[in-house]
Amino acid sequence: MESTLVNMVCVLVGVALIMGGILAYVNHMTEGPISQQAEKALSDGIKAVMMSDNLTITANDTVRETIDNKECVFIVHKAADANGKEIGAAVESTTLGFGGDLKVLVGFNPDGDILGYTLLEHSETPGLGAKADAWFQKDGKSSIIGKNPSTPLIVSKDGGDVDAITASTITSRAFLKAVNQAYNVYKKKNADAQSGATKKVAINQ
Asked: Residue 191 has what pLDDT?
């Protein structure tokens, strides 16, 4: 083929179309497994933060709140035990950390006490802000398990009683903000007004 500008452009366009088709095919093939993996991670996370391997999700309520002039989206996973008794809820809450969005899943009992938590997503610095995954756990450096955020959780540097992660005060503030907001949404009990009906989903080990 003669090396002309038209020919080169045609070749480049052809290669681009082929590569685009391949990428679309790969994305289509992996979309299902990725979605299933995310659902399993969430299911495992709910069991972990609710401290139960045998529970039923009775509702998945999406709540939208305007905080600091920004719309924030929360998901409240209401839970019941094997006998149908309400045991609280696991709440997804997202705030802006040091490196990007910090998404936390927090489990509350009916009184609003923290049962457990896990980080669903974060972009914090490895070895520093990423320590939030363990720092505030029951056996961590500054546990929040069992605390009730009716009095907001605040780092000691700001006058509170929660020790911030060493050299990661910004991440600590963001994490506690996410937990406090999750509590406020859970306690307002108005999620049904802003969500659609959902079916019960059993989560068994």
From this structure: 39
